[in-house]
Amino acid sequence: MEQINEIIKKQLSTLTNNGRRVSYSPYKLDIALSVVDRIGKGLEPKFSLTPEVEPTYIELIKFFHGDSSFSGDINKGILLMGPTGTGKTMAMDIMKIYQTIDNVCYVLNGKPVRMNFEITDVSMLVNSFLDNGYDGLEVYNHRYALCIDDIGSESNQIKYYGNDLDVVGYVLAERYVRRLMTFGTTNYKEEFLVGKYGDRIVSRMYALFNFIVMKGKDFRKTK
Hints:
By secondary structure, the protein is α/β, with parallel strands linked by helices. The chain is built from eight helices and eleven strands.
């Protein structure tokens, strides 16, 4: 274990520790956008880095590079907001691949941990709870990085052996306590989230996320 820690330490020795984040720079934005475009077209041939969505991708690139010019707090995760079809999940799919190029890390309890993440739909969280109760959520409560897709689309309260639980709110609260890197997407505005989860959970969201609104047309519906 000590040898592994030394290897990680050596690999990160040229990087800048910026709070909980590690800075991967310098980098060239035009090249980064070209890579994003190539990944996007590899996932979906109709993908287009349009002027509408490019500003969001620039912010995502800055975030994953730990660039201090990112317009939010690089020590928080990201919640992509916007109407259905604006490409929020696609954006996280692209960045899930993009961040592996540099093996992006953040610092947790003084140690670097990789920011590799899976995108998990809220329905999977709900089904895990229905199948296995609280034990079914433990994996989501402890992953170093996680993206929860379609926040707000699940039922308000899930019944399990007579007990009610706001599954997404519970997972977000647990990840907040553990200071884990968390991402998400939602089709809903802040007002809806407050009404659904309450002030306490939304305050946790503000502690976990940078709220970024994504604009754009649904490229999947273009001919």
